[in-house]
Amino acid sequence: MDLAWISVAALIIAVTLSMVTTLNVGIICLAFAWIVGVLLGGMSVGDILDGFPTPLFVTLVGVTLLFSMARGNGTLERVTERAVRLCRGHTGVLPIMFFFLALGLSTIGPGSIGSAALLAPPAMAVAARTGISFFLMAVMIGNGALAGSLSPFSPTGVVANSVMARMGFPGLEWQTFINNILGHTLVAFGGYAILGGLKLFGSHQRDAAVEEPPSQAMEPRHWLTIALISALLVCVIWFNFEVGMTALTAAAILSFTRAADEKDAIRGMPWGVILMVTGVTVLIELLEKTQGLDLFTDLLVRLSTAETVTAVVAFVTGVVSVYSSTSGVVLPAFLPTVPGIMERLEGLDPIAVASAMNLGSHLVDLSPLSTTGALCLAGIPAGVESQGLFNKLLAWGLSMTVVGAILCWLMFG
Measured in whole angstroms, how far is the alpha carbon of residue 373 from the centre of its chain? Predict the structure, then answer.
């Protein structure tokens, strides 16, 4: 069998395994790259490892380490607490505040998973005390966290932008980010209106409002962490510093000053996701060398026309993302097909196709089968029956495959 077809089969098997098993697909992809490239293709191990994304690895390590430290030393928790206190007694504003708080936290570095893990427990506790629907609160938190997940500072944004730069489309970080925010904002506030959020403004529950815990004092280590994160944003946005090395430097300062526990922070980093992303990228690079990526692209093109391609790729990536990792599998596997789609379907805007993949794969992540949705489900208070919320989140996530396709067609088609 032609090596190109073998490499495509390896990718399809890897994506399928990511959907139906709990195996780390990065390990599987590294093994497949060695088997296909070295044992069957006669390449050297060095040829295979040339595809290892060293800059991406450094960036992911730097960003996740810094925000693991910020989470571990209590800085993010204190910032969240102070934001919640601002909305005391205003029931209708609370879900909106949590949307923007999740968006802000996700944007500056932790990404959707870190933001949802931090915000879901207090948000669901607030919902229980004020009578806000858990489902409504989950929709707002989840979409807010996902809206910020493609920022240049978040792990998923780093993955997407690195892949797009390798494809020959650098410098699109902020346009990609804004497109993702717009899509999730439309979905979140559409859900807010449909699920009764507007009625909350007519209910006066000041007496039942948030029973706030005693405020935790800001210590010097927290102010130092905030200052370093702020410096990271300024240096990257205005002075074009490299994100990963700048974040590693900030993390080194926190470690040196004992403002955060380095060992705990390293243990708290998402090593499984980092291994998954880099492993899948090595296999994708092999596909490019064997021309297998052209065949994989053909499979997508056969399902599409120039008029429908944004809807098709949003639907396909959404379906795969329901059962698989968006940052670890879907984006590294599908984004590299954009140049090939551009060649075969003339007259397309590459950022439109890429944005449809990014948005379509993220909108479904509120499903409880995905980490963000699962964290929202896990945040409900002890003793509260969770099966109803599970069913609603699952139905929401699955429906987003269709909603995402329509929305991407309207936004980018």
Answer: 12
